[in-house]
Amino acid sequence: MLSSPQHLIDGEIAELKRFGYTPFGDAAPDWVAMWEHLKGDFATLRRPRVPDFAELSPWPQEGARIYMRRRLLADRLFEECQVLYRSLHMEGINIERVEAYTLGREAYEEAVLDFGKAREMLEDVFSRTVDLAPMR
Amino acid sequence: MKTFKTYDKGDVLPEDYKKALINLMCFQADSEYAGAQRVAENHRYATRPEEAYRLSKKVFEEMGHGFYVWNLLQELGVDVDARLYELSHNPDNPDPKKVNVINGFRKENWSKFFECWEDVALFSTVVTPAAVAFLGQYRECSYLPWARVNVRIHKEEYGHLAFGVWASKRCIEFGGEKTREFMQQRIQKFMQMGLGFYGRPSAGDKKSQMFDVYYEYGIKVKKPEELQAEYMELLDSRLKEIGLVVPAGVEADYDMRMGYEAEEPLAA
């Protein structure tokens, strides 16, 4: 049985859903639920338990919200890439569509790197707040 | 440095030159796209969100490299949409009569190399330097439109190498010394692939029959020995950065034909 170009995209979506990806919609971001999917990235040998979103004090909570907003931006650009990818497969390869796809994926790449920078920012905030909490 | 005649967009290409050029360009384009499909299959090993997102971006990048080169092949009269159709509709076993995918990027070969996220990180650290060196030579090749496209591709291949270093460091950061030792043991299998990337030596009994043709035309501008030296330098520096070392006595695996050293032009 033949596969289709959509098969690859469906696989990408399924993998990102493991970390809380949800397709674009009208609902306001559910920070608590999203944090549950993402907080594992802040677990280290020295910090095996990462607090829930509601447990965070205002400083790290705002950092976490910014981190998650970066991810939402990456998600929207990921969807833009899907549209451009489908266009190349359905309408054929030409210079306009190839360069449009290039712009789309470069924007997505930058958003993913920004998401990483936000993680580093939050990691720094955690080292100055969450990690010190038991000592207070 | 060797000199050769160059050609730009719209120039009339000698028939034999065009045949050799199209063969290598098809291998690059088809394999970049197939490589993206393989990278996507590795997504299941991603253990953390940022790893998953970075791998997703890599899928789109590799695919974009294929689109760049196919776009040029279209101008040379190749039916690239048919190649795209074959690869996207038969990702697990594309017909070798219709597309030219390097052995290493065929699913049955690729999947044997990956068992965990550490393997994904090591692939980009240990094999990608070979791609950086191998594809880097095309920036100076005699077909100028392809050379220009490979300037863009080469820059991003460096980015993939940076991804490998980043991902490997993260594995060790979270897993400690035990993970570092685990990864050190797994370098060899990927290094065999990396060493075989640019094809057989340019001289001696085992030399490739096609290399001289490509070299004479300026389609390939560096000998395998030169590329190997570049590869080893890059590999050594990146492994040191991570806290790993180059294992001794590793032999190249040419059977994976990562560097598309086809003896005869295939599907085009």
How would you describe the overall organization of this protein?
The complex is a heterodimer of chains A (136) and B (268). The longest helix of chain A has 34 residues, at 58-91. Chain A is elongated, with a radius of gyration of 18 Å. Chain A has helices spanning 5-17, 31-38, 58-91, 95-128. Chain A starts with a helix and ends in an 8-residue tail after the last helix. Chain A has a domain at 58-136. The relative contact order of chain A is 0.13. The mean pLDDT of chain A is 94. Chain A has 136 residues and is mostly helical. In chain A, 65% of the residues lie in helices and 0% in strands. Chain B has 268 residues and is mainly alpha-helical. Chain B has helices at 15-41, 49-75, 80-89, 107-110, 117-136, 144-196, 211-217, 224-242. Chain B starts with 14 loop residues before the first helix and ends in a 26-residue tail after the last helix. Chain B has eight helices and no strands. The chains are: A mainly alpha (136), B mainly alpha (268). Chain A binds chain B through residues 2-5, 7-8, 11-12, 15-16, 18-20, 37-38, 40-41, 43-45, 71, 74, 78, 81, 85, 88-89, 92-95, 98, 101-102, 105, 108-109, 112, 115-116, 119, and chain B through 36-37, 40-41, 43-44, 46, 48-50, 52-54, 56-57, 59-61, 63-64, 67-68, 70-71, 74, 80-81, 84, 88-92, 173-174, 176.
- Average predicted confidence as pLDDT of chain B: 92
- Strand portion of chain B, in percent? under 5%
Distance between the termini of chain B: 31 Å
Give the helix level of chain A as a range of percent.
Answer: 55-70%
Helix content of chain B: 55-70%
In short:
The complex is a heterodimer of chains A (136) and B (268). Helix content of chain A is 65%, strand content 0%.
